[in-house]
Amino acid sequence: MTYRTWLLSAASIILVASAADAQTISDQAQDTAVSSGDAAAPDAAGDVVVLGFGQTRQVQTVSAIDMERLTPGTSPLKAIAKLPGVNFQSADAFGAYEWSTRISLRGFNQNQLGFTLDGVPLGDMSYGNVNGLHISRAVISENLASTTVAQGAGALATASTSNLGGTIQFVSRKPSDEADLAASGTYGSNDTIRAFVRADSGDLGGGLKGYLSYGHLTTDKWKGFGSQRQHQANAKLVKDFGDRGSITAFVDFSDRRENDYQDLSYDIIARRGLRSDNISDNYPLALQIAKVYQNQAARSAFAAANNGSTTGFVAPWTGAGFAFPSGFGTVDDAYYDAAGLRRDWLGGVTFDAKLTPVLSVVSTSYYHHNKGQGSWITPYSPTPAGALGPDGTALAVSSTSTAGLASPLGYRTTEYSIDRAGNLTRLAIDTGANRLEIGGWYESNTFNQARRFYGMNDGATANRRALDFQSNAYRTQFDGKYDTETLQYFVADTLDLGALTLNGGWKGMRVRNQATLRTGSLVAGRIEARDWFLPQVGVLFRLGGGAELFASYTANMRAFVSSATSGPFATTQAGFNAIRLTLKPERSKTAEGGIRLRSNGLQLSAAGYYVDFSNRLLSFSNGAGIIGNPPTLNNVGGVRSYGAELAATYRVAQPLTLFGSYSYTKATYRDDVRSAAGVLLQPTKGKTIVDTPEHMAKGEVVYDDGRLFARAGGDYMSKRYFTYLNDQSVAGRVLVDASIGYRLKNVGGILEGLAIEGSVTNLNDRKYVSTIGTNGYTASGDNQTLLAGAPRQWFVTLRRGF
User: Where is the signal peptide (predicted)?
Assistant: First the structure.
């Protein structure tokens, strides 16, 4: 508590000392070129959402103002959850717990979308990301200027090889022209403490300015035992040359460590409830469960080898018996502990230059280094005697083991490292009504992945902590090096004829994946995805009176990923050899159109879309996730999706704004799953794709008169399936969040702008399943792949300088 009290005290001192006003939203306006990016600046201070006016496709932008209305530290993904077609789920109140975080657009899951920060690729943001990092680690949420969602097709220049179903572009704030010190301190449920501070230098002369910021979050889990914490630092330096351009350098650092929540099944929920979790506070109980399981497994194996007889059988763990402790039905009901650790450095330099009155160039070079570890303390892999402890001392045989084991538990990790570097360069020629752009992206990425086991003890307390990077492994199951070389280019042209805007172009890509196995029996080899012509066209017609029609068509391809646990390398060598020459990358063709209307304080948008998705690749899970069996990669044919999206925002009066959205999605498999020989494996044709609600409706009321500010939002989602045959689903739910606060205005001195805010998440305290598919999907039946949503939680924030 001393450390946490110091954090809050330091934040409060900085708050009172801060005297400069916040950077206005006009400082954060973004390029609205249709071909090079989707980001659009709000047209008036205080806008909740900008509905993409002037764009030839379905686009919406959420500004920094809207992020400020959420609890500090909240993921920007949660801020865009209210947009039509966006399905966002997380098991924590902040939406930042990565194992649980999932986002999908129009039925396309997270690893089929594209994500960028200031143009720099973030990969597909999946857990255990092989080619990027999550936005919650890439930038502190207070340093975001805007988040733009293109539900159907991102811009041609987007640096992504996975954006089949749309893109999400994050733009960080620019340094302020004025010296500024902003800070906030938050305290709330589960002993949550969040502190943030940012120092802006202001213009130091000649257009040189920058900022340095730091954020810290620590919170106890809302159920079970354990914590989730993060340290982050962002720095940005800009040299502005006026009309001639600018040079921007940035460095971002994150160290995130989080104890996991237990994955649930309906069976576990029925027996133990939604609050069932890992037993990280009771190591002896975890040992007992593991010993019982191993006694059961050994007895079954003995009987199978002896015609059902158990005569002469000796249990590997004496005194443990064969019955689980009261309240536990299986070994998977609760593990001792699990965690995710990620440490990232992301840096780069952007040159933005006006070479001639008509020719400009933007070039960004970047580098990203990651070290990560996902851990499970597992009853499936007992520790052998002689394995080393964390201090390097050999572990002796347990006094209760007849099998020569040191412990019934083992510490299993999946270890990651990423070293990737790349460059994005874009040339633009503006000649009156026409804008021609040509650009390219190159990236070289080395991803190392290993699975190792570390020794656990048999004692009153555990000898290893899940939030520490481990050492002294006693076994390496596999260790692979995965190299990915990405080359992408685009050509785009936009013709603005006043009432009519036409744009079109194409992109091409080649992605080479190489697997080199150092240890183990997984895959080594090479595979490539290539298509040099993926077209995109769009049209915008301004009807007058603030109304416009838009339509677009886009073709996209998703490249293969290089990993031991996902993609074509996540199988056996024989399996890879069989598919290497015939496996086709996933493809999508998207057509959409709609109408937008803007009149005084009203913005309306209505869109319809149709998607033809082919060569859909699915990895079927094999056994409990903790066992680590290689998944089976299958080409399950096509998917047909169509739907409609409505959004409206209305400024009733200057302080009061209303927002609402509705989306309908019909996405079904077009084919049954068959073997290479044509044998029917699963009759999936006509079934709804997993984790895709048919109906979503969101609404929000925002009030801000300069002093008093408040927000209330509701989110409805219909049921979602978590089996391919649609025999298992989670029910629909309605969630409500709310906040209210007050800021000091016109008081002068150091108190000017000081604000206090209270917020509540899940106001109606709904008990529900949030994330599904954490351990993948199965064809049918129950599966331990669900996470419970967080209950009602409250937070109080004191802040200054925003």
Answer: 1-22
